[in-house]
Write the structure tokens for this entry.
Amino acid sequence: MKKTLMAILCAWVSATSFALAGAEQEMLEADRAFAAMAAEKGAPAAFAAFAAEDVRMFPGGSQPYAGRDQMIEEFSDWPEGAVLEWSPVEAVAAPGGDFGFTWGRYIYTSRNEAGEENVGHGKYVSVWRREAAGAWKFVADIGNANPDPAAPE
């Protein structure tokens, strides 16, 4: 009896671990596709495409807000030529495999009124949810600045 119970428990743990690893990989792939779209079509288009309708945004330096429509409105004044690039570092999935987060680092590049390039570095967390149709959408996003991680201290 004990051996049977232990075998069932081991099988369940193995299946759960496999499901979580699969969900984590899917979230990383979604985040990479999100970043690729931002590189190709710009951050506003990518955020609009990958955000859930009920998204919560926590932008650095301003107040949080909710809703995809509000997010699109906030991106309407995206600076001409500004580029937001990012790369996920890690994903963590909830036990159900349909919710989790990715985090990574970003670089934001823009030009000031004199045409000089400004480069900012930071980190972000995106919370992801698998939608009913199977696609991953982010439901919350937060980012904040930090020094260039490659710069000597």
Remarks:
- Helices lie at 2-41, 43-50, 68-74.
- The chain has one domain: 2-146.
- The domain at 2-146 is CATH 3.10.450.50 (Nuclear Transport Factor 2; Chain: A,).
- The radius of gyration is 19 Å.
